[in-house]
Amino acid sequence: MDGIMNTNIAHPYCGVVTHMFANEEYSIETSPVRTLLYSNLPPTTAGQSNATRQTLQEAQRHLRDVDENIRYLLAKRMMLQNYIETHRGIVSSLRQVPNEILSEVFIHALPVFPFRLSQNQAPLLFERVCKRWKDVSRSTPTLWSYISLSDYAYNIGAVERDLRYTSTCLARSGNCPLSISLDIGAIPLNSITNYLEHPALAMLTAHSERWHRLILQAPWEVVRKLEILKGRLSLLSSMNLEIRGLAEQHDATEFDVFAFSPKLRHLELSSEFYTLDVGMFSIPWKGLTSLVLSHRQTDIVWGILLDCPCLVVLEVTINTDNNAPVQDVNLQYLRSLSLTLPSSSTMLFTLVLPALVHASFMIETPDEDIEWAEPWHIHSGLDTMLSQSRCTLLQLELWDDADHLEEWDFVCCLEAVPSLHGVVLCPKLSSMLLSYALFPDGAISETFLPNLKDLVLWASGAMPNNWPHDYDLFLRSFRALTGHFRLIQSLTITMDEEALAVCEELYILVALRVLRSEGIYVNVVDDDGSVRPLITSQLEDFPLLNGRHVRRL
């Protein structure tokens, strides 16, 4: 038909007609039984029935032809789409990125070291994308400069696997400095090989002049065998050394392999017998800028510090405070101090740290028989250390695993450091801060964190039940804090799954959402630092706040 045509589609059961229009290009011939289409009457003659059947057959044949054309066009469309996408990639911005920049991107995408090569993560993952990425990754030496061998298995297959892995990384890394991680367990008596003869380890020691970073967790017998590296570790700048199986009866002859490492700047040292390894190893202490020691006696730690004048970062766990007399230690470059110490420790009196800006204290091993007449920051020596150092402390972390600190200790400690910009508090002290803000004896002191900008609270387990957990009380508590901390910019709460469920039940997450709407940067994060959503469920009504319903957004 010419022009726009009125076509009618009847309901298949009742024959009720729906009127539609066809355009000029596509039209359908007039039905030979069109009079029946506009009624609910059956065919009255054999001719009408035959005409209807013939019309159906022709229409169905045309429909099959149309479907076949549609399939052809869809296939053609898919081919064209793929063709377009293939050519679009040629002019994409990613393809224009120079190989040098792509190489840097690959380096930043590497997992945290130590890691083993895996098809599902960088750098091997890059080889599965395209030929260019494969070529770039293989020609980037830094990507292959991280070698990690762990859990040595004592069979031929494992030895061959380690050998292929090590040889591949050494070949592709060129002359790039190497980061080496060796996690070696105890040596079984029925081992098919020993560490001196292990081909992968022998291959690594042959390239010891390239060692830049070393993480070594091994028995003392294995560490001793590294004596062949003496004088060959000139590039070594970072070392994590964990000695296993070190005992009193072992040969305590000085081990000076690392003494000839002039670029060594970071040292992390631990062992099972903590009083032995320090005196056993000859280390270029004077060049260190970062030192981590685990579970040492105070006099041993302070003896080391006297030989480390250039330290910038210090992290120490003091196992026991034996009250041995020690000299004052002046570390004029130290900016970050992290100490785990007994509640009775008084060693902070001896520290002079004029450049200190960050401090972290974890209190362990409580002394139940001692009752202090002074708050913790006084009897521990923190107040004296800050006074004689004349430093401007900006960040403070407090962890009380010994349940030693009372509100008096806690408040007095924070009042003593008015320069603080950031505070991190353990779960117990986080609860203490919220309660103090809500129920202080009078107004909050003007010297209580007047310059605070960033506050980090921790919650674990059912601890939020100890917070002001009425919705109104919780908001009042935080508003009391934010009203006092006029400079505060961010609030971060780190919590585990159980604490998150408690906070959800008590509407604490909703209160945090309200605080965010008032201009504070509020974050809830996992223990690993991943950000959690503040609000996860649908709109629902919450209890009255000042006579108004609060709704979850």
Structural notes for this entry:
By secondary structure, the chain is an alpha/beta fold. Among the domains are: 1-30, no CATH class; 43-96; 145-283, Leucine-rich repeat, LRR (right-handed beta-alpha superhelix), CATH 3.80.10. The chain is 33% helix and 21% strand. The strands form 4 sheets. The chain has a 15-stranded mixed sheet with strand order 3-4-5-6-7-8-9-11-13-14-15-16-17-18-19. A two-stranded antiparallel ribbon has the order 1-2. Strands 10-12 form a two-stranded parallel sheet. Helix 15 packs parallel to helix 17. The chain starts with a strand and ends with a strand. The model is unreliable at 1-21, 189-193 and 536-553 (pLDDT under 50).
